[in-house]
Design brief:
Blueprint (H helix, E strand, L loop, with lengths): L2 H4 L5 E6 L13 E18 L10 E22 L1 H16 L4 E9 L7 E7 L13 H9 L2 E2 L2 E2 H15 L6 H17 L7 H4 L5
Parallel strand pairs: 1-5
Antiparallel strand pairs: 1-3, 2-3, 2-4, 4-5, 6-7
Helix pairs in contact: 3-5
């Protein structure tokens, strides 16, 4: 589904974010809701050669992988009227042109009680993308994250912010993949005697 097809005859649209969009959507919106989508698991399987890495050293960022038994937590943003086209133009450049993501429509289930499911647009990177990295061990992913930096900052910051979101807004959810990579990264820094990623003052300097 193309963004230009989505905006036809619509005055409201929900956009689901599960990576950097949870803390930095980068577009104006009417309201937001925390919740989840079913049938997908979040994985650090996509490469990034611009925001958190470069052409010489690809960073690791998240995408969604189909899994009927899984669910992924994040934030859905409602954009209305002129915000729709503006947000899609922004995301088309950020996620499609620079990130290599495609768009799909999914059912979003808000965490707030009494709220029914909503249809939302989501951006997903697939294995057909040239910079798609695919699966690796948590230790190898953590090592790659520890060594990469791009135009938006260090790859560690990306991981830390996602961990912070899950622990703050979804404390009841055990995101095994995400937390295992965090643990592996902590072990790397502990073994090296360096600053641990938990020291946010050091890691998030200059964060946007």
């Amino acid at each position: 589904m193309k963004p230009q097809d989505i905006i036809k005859e619509k005055n409201s649209l929900w956009i689901f974010g599960y990576g950097s969009l949870v803390w930095n959507p980068g577009f104006a919106y009417k309201r937001s809701k925390i919740g989840f989508i079913k049938g997908y698991k979040r994985r650090f399987w996509h490469g990034d050669d611009f925001y958190r890495g470069d052409k010489e050293k690809l960073a690791r960022v998240v995408t969604l992988v189909e899994d009927q038994e899984a669910c992924t937590w994040g934030v859905a943003y409602e954009v209305t009227d002129s915000q729709i086209e503006e947000s899609l133009q922004h995301l088309n450049m950020r996620e499609v042109v620079l990130g290599g993501y495609i768009t799909k429509t999914v059912e979003f289930i808000p965490k707030e009680k009494g709220q029914g499911p909503l249809l939302a647009l989501v951006y997903i990177a697939t294995s057909s993308n040239p910079i798609y990295l695919g699966p690796a061990s948590e230790k190898d992913i953590a090592a790659q994250i520890a060594s990469c930096s791009g135009n938006k900052g260090h790859n560690i910051e990306y991981l830390v912010r996602l961990v912070e979101f899950m622990r703050l807004y979804c404390p009841e959810v055990e995101d095994e993949h995400l937390f295992s990579i965090e643990a592996a990264l902590l072990n790397i820094y502990s073994d090296c005697g360096g600053i641990k990623p938990a020291d946010q003052k050091a890691i998030l300097v200059g964060a946007t």
